[in-house]
Amino acid sequence: MKKITIGLVAHVDSGKTTLAEGLLFESGKLKRAGRVDKKDAFFDSHDLEKNRGITIFSKQAQFEYKNLSCILLDTPGHVDFATEMERTLIVLDYAILIIGATDGIKGHTRTLFKLLSKYNIPTFIFINKMDQKGANKEEVLELLKKDINEHCVEFNETDRLFLEHIAVCDEVILEKYFETEKISIQDIKELIAHRKVFPVCFGSALKLIGIKEFLDLLAKYIITPIYSTNFDAKVFKITFDSQGNRLTHLKIIGGALKIRDIISYKEIVEKITEIRIYESEGYKNTAQVSAGDICSVLGLSKTKVGDSFGEILEYSTKIEPVLNYKIIPIDGTNIKTLYENLQKLNQEEPMLNIIWREDIKEIEVKIMGEVQIEILTSIVKERFNIDIEFLKGTVVYKETIQKEVIGVGHFEPLRHYAEVMLKLEPQPIGTGIIIKNACPIENLEKNYQQQIISYLKHNEHRGTLAGYSLTDIKITLLAGLSHKKHTAPNDFREATKRALRQALKQTDSILLEPYYNFFISLPEANLGRALNDIERFFGTSKVNNIENQVAKISGKAPVSTISGYQKELTSYTKGFGVISFEIGEFDKAHNEEEIIKNTGYLEENDILNPSYSIFCSHGTGFNVPWNEVFNYMHLEQKIEEKPFYVQEKLSISAEEIDNIINKATGSNTEKTHGWTKPNKNENIQKKVITGIEYKSPKIKKKNYILVDGYNVIFAHTDLRALGNKNLESARIALLEELSNYQAIKKCELIAVFDAYKVKGGVETIEKYNNIYMVFTKEAQTADHYIERFVHQNAKEAKITVVTSDRLEQLIITSNGATTISAKIFRIQMQLESNELLNNYLELNKGERNFVLSEIRDFWNN
User: Fold this and answer.
1) Could you tell me the pTM of the whole model?
2) Which residues touch 702 (CB under 8 Å, ≥6 apart)?
């Protein structure tokens, strides 16, 4: 039989758990389908779930149907428990996305589909509640193709156009279909497995309509994964049972696992003492599990979500909590005791990020929303018998840098020694923290390099503006120094901490806050009010369409300003206005100065994150401020014309380090082997450090102007009118103007035109006079091409993008380029051309030049 893991994902109240009951009933697993409203659903077994009527904890059940042996995972639908849902995705073979027939496409539904895409999970779509009034199959399909994916296909094999709908989803299959008018079942399976087709089925889970047909579809079109014979497994969940036993929940993706097997991970060796197979709240013990199984094991004490055994798999979450709260006990419990208990919850839900702030003696926690607060309060009372309160919180802020920088940290109290050099580079929004090792093995021993990389990867790093977590930074280990006798185990941790902080002190940082992507539907008469409100919220928006006196708006705005807008919207639209949110990314904070002031954070008082380094002289350690560390560092300091990455020497020898140590401790005062500690009173000019100190040659950046061609054409009355008659003529007119302008600016000028709707179109770059003309490929817009160009070249070139698209302007500027609107750019072209012409005529008074006269007439008209 096919052994498959399928997950159910949906926006809350879409009927997800009801569908799970229907699948278990129709497969013969249950004798009767339970109901959420009657509190007898198989999956919602916890009292908190029964009382609220929502799924809070992901659970599993196993059933068999025809040739299918299925492990079914029910995940939370409420956005407050989205992190629990996301963890489950890493073990799925297939997913079922449930959407209510009359609900439209909610913001969280969009988020779910993006997550399924991120984890590359083949997806079936079940449109539920088709029995409700107003449910329209054609309208739902149209909405799916528009808002989810154009390759959503109703799997109605009696429809004569069914195969044609499948064929257009893939070029190779389309060619086969044109030749044979047939598509094999195996081909359809492959298209689904590679996320090129998304099967859509319709029904009513509550009334068991369409459930059996849906099971038939799953059995027919699902492909069994091919597993390795070597033992591999993924950790997707950590829990504690009622006896306090720690459970590690695994998906076996290769080989087999038996009781008493020895597992080696993270330099830890532990024995499996028990294997359980859970269904809802109950479980059965088993002696062995094999590839494709999901189980829970006892005996592993240090595992965490995302760990893997066997093949190393990188894991990072997309959904992050957006609210930061403080927790206090209100029943007299010692706050440290509360913190110790909360650490168990933190293992189960890592995104809570429960931390003890030693500087303010408080517990901080990151959460998704108000419902999660209520649930956590109940869980802490139930499991630890502690009454807690969440103090009013703020949104989660983060910090990032704007410029590349090098930092050095030195840790050398008596009988200790470590020095570290790091490079920090800003990254695009949403990247997170990237760690890279570029340190040669001959420069620093491998085990010390691993200590540095491990510290950087597994610790939260704070910024210097307000002490918030760092993000969107690439940290590269460039070099380091150790001593064979004096380097102790934690020395590189201390040196790395100082190198990171010293780098941050040199560069410009900015504060980031979380944003929501929003979608608003409201009466056309209220459109102006909504747009003004969005501007008041420091958001950006665009009107997507107005139809039947209903306007639809989309955009983004800070969570801190727009999160409570539904109540206000409902009030002024008399109940007709609806807003849905999708968790967006972090972006520049709208009120940075106010936030920093309110935190009261003082970087110099942050004793856990020092920016100073510690050096040693005559047997005594002394502190060196961050801005003087380059004058004391032991790494190679020669100033050369070539960059550090082509220098031959990145370190000093062990003998040189010995002599430095000896001199510092008073053991040897004869030689320093070329290194002398500078006199602190000398007036030393500050140098730019970029790895190992060097003077880089000044290279003039190339200047590019990228023009969104059609955006400019349709922004001007004359070009638009010409384009309505003949688009090619409008293009040529614009290209002629750009050619003339390039002759003045002496820059690289590229005009980009959309060709994304041209079937089979390929990206082309052509020379037009003295400029370049780009036509994008099929399914690629001019925006996509420009964004890619900016991302790849912004560091090496000066780039200006001509577009009036506000969202595009934000994306471009966030990547380091500048923008100018289409109208202002064309005016600027005309002014500069006229100025050049007038200057020429002034120099050549009295001489009649008919060509220049014609040029002037062209620009003036």
Assistant:
1) 0.64
2) 748, 796, 797, 798
